[in-house]
Amino acid sequence: MKKIAVFASGSGTNFQAILDAIQDGKLDCKVELLVCDKKGALCIQRAEKANIPTFVFTAKQYENKAAYEQEILQQLKTLDVEFIVLAGYMRLIGPTLLTGFQGKIVNIHPSLLPAFPGKDAIGQAIRAGVKKSGVTIHFVDEGMDTGPIIDQQEVELDENETLESLQEKIHMVEHQLYPAVLQRLFQQN
Length: 189
Fold this sequence. Notes:
Layout: E1 2-8, H1 13-23, E2 29-36, H2 42-49, E3 54-56, H3 65-78, E4 83-86, H4 95-100, E5 105-109, H5 121-128, E6 132-139, E7 149-156, H6 163-188
Parallel strand pairs: 1-2, 1-4, 2-3, 4-5
Antiparallel strand pairs: 5-6, 6-7
Helix pairs in contact: 1-6
């Protein structure tokens, strides 16, 4: 059974989908730690409810990215974490974690990369007037949403699609696709 850490910054719906998949026997791993960079984020409450330890930090309280990533890395090593799973973590991963977990950091992004990388991908898709968007799961590298793609799933946009309706469609796909892809990945590694 793989030991993972989930990194999140917000409500944690993908984190919850991972926890639910583990509970349902669809994902064979153990979440050892939730790492969050936003005090008060809902994902922290989700972790506490599931009795998962948390590491909550404020980046500004550290000298630089390397300093807080070094502290995270130490905790991950202490817990024997094998994979980092990003689930709405709104920071770029730096060299400290990239080196410590090379090829073992996975992210989910709400677009069909390489289209609409970065923040507000769903809003970017709506403003661009595309007919299709989707979800991408990829390995993390030093760029913003540029790592090798593991899997993608398309989502059709309706004629009168809104930001809210597309977010809902994307979340429905994410919550099914992410645990399934993680399970395949963990079985291969």
